[in-house]
Design goal:
By secondary structure, the protein is an all-alpha fold. Helix 1 runs antiparallel to helix 2, helix 2 runs parallel beside helix 4 and helix 3 packs antiparallel against helix 4. The chain contains four helices and no strands.
Length: 70
């Protein structure tokens, strides 16, 4: 279905990258990575700069790296 397509889920998941719950932010970054949503690299990169939770920041950094290098 469409929930497995990055173009449909990216806007929802990008919004979740700034959720107040760190687990939600982490899962959103992982989901973008799994969906190979390369269109989210810019958003991930910008949000990563202000992420205060070290665990979430690690996941975001990994997602950015994987999305950039396929």
């Amino acid at each position: 279905g469409k929930l497995h397509e990055a173009k449909w889920t990216k806007p929802f998941l990008v919004k979740k990258l700034t959720d107040s719950n760190s687990d939600v932010r982490k899962r959103a970054a992982l989901s973008l990575m799994k969906l190979k949503a390369s269109g989210a690299i810019k958003d991930l990169s910008e949000i990563f700069l202000t992420e205060e939770d070290p665990d979430v920041a690690k996941v975001m950094k990994l997602a950015i790296k994987r999305l950039k290098h396929g």
